[in-house]
Amino acid sequence: RNIMEFTKEYPKAVRIKLEQNYRSTQPILTAADGVIAANPNRPEKKMWTERTEGPKIVVHEVENEKKEAWEAVHAAEKLRGDGVPFREQAILYRTNAQSRLFEEACMRAGIPYRIVGGVKFYARKEVKDVLAYLHVILNPYDTISLLRIINVPARKIGLTTLARIQAYATGGNLPLWDALQNIQQIPDINEPTKERILKFTELIGKYRGKANVEVVSELADNLLRSLELEQWLKDDTEEGEERWQNVLELLSVMHKYDALDPATSLTSFLEEVSLVSEVDKLIDGSGDALTLMTLHLCKGLEFEHVMIAGCEEGIFPHSNSAFDREQLEEERRIMYVGMTRAKTYLKLFLARTRTLWGQSQSNAPSRFLDDLPDAVTERRSDDVLSAFAWASQKGEESIGTSKVEPFRQGQHSLKIEFNQDIDFSDDFNQDRQLAAGSRVRHTVFGDGTVISVRGDIAEIQFDDGKKKNLALSIAPLTSL
User: Could you tell me the pTM of the whole model?
Assistant: First the structure.
């Protein structure tokens, strides 16, 4: 705005356009110009480069977010084989909550990665807080987890009070959980504080009772409602909204374990999350590593190969911009910046269906994709009807299927309720076709035999005697 008003204040000022780009190829610049040109009041300029030749921009429609992660990681692997190191490649996304599947896909493929300007999904505070609650529900004698959550949300239990409780526990040779249950016997703690601690222990006791009758996703959802964690995390800020989105993404992971018996659902989920963290430690991201980052943080950076994920209405552009013209213009600028981070290769991904923030939905393709000139764009789809729609007047004909809407058909988001008998046959690792009796190798547990497979969950008897329920979409397994 200051730049636009500058010439009004200084009418004799001379405008000098800086239109030569030294980074990207002309197809990338032409595509990016097509997107940003839709912003009104933008100073007119057209970027050019001496790098006139280059591959077309690839717009790749996939079935779901799991396939999106798999295709992105596979594309990075392929280019590395062609001589482009991982450090020259990046996956960009609109919100931090989208990073989880890309992290897991990298771990599954054994690809080193780094998160720029952020924290890995399972290391985020709000995610660790929810996991700590579940650990305490499973085992209240987990003192580290217990101390982590006793003031989440804030219960006004101060450090002095905790010190007195721990002193009482030490003096009586008691675990912290037992000391909390004996709070009425501990001196020098006022009654209101004792009452808050009693309510906390009652809450844990209540959900310990539910743990054997509710699957982990149902248990956690009810727990979060009891804690009123959404209101506490959001705190009317954009950062708070993102924290809550991370929690909803964690709930999405839990739904994988709905097929298990409630008595094992919680344990299996926590074991798998712990395993993901351990496998992640084995992957060194300090050398040649794939970059994962939000679009907000990519300005000033450049990569030989850039992939932008989630190019769907409500995701990018973000739902917050739906009724805000200025915010939508900002979203368009963010897309322009993201696209022009690419030197040579640029891929834009969208999914026909997506489970995000705890809800499964089918969104219309991003309006930004309509602005890409056909001459510099290659459109791909793993759905025949969608591919046909692209070839038919840029997808404007009404072509439908009974399963999903093809690219460009629908302009409104279709909300779908969670199916508790969720089918994981479309997970990106299912090409292995594991069955009972298959021999597998795990990077941590070693060799073992598959006992049974239920959706995405495989029960495996390892040769050292351990028996584990593992999510195939996460577990680093190879067939023997």
Answer: 0.75
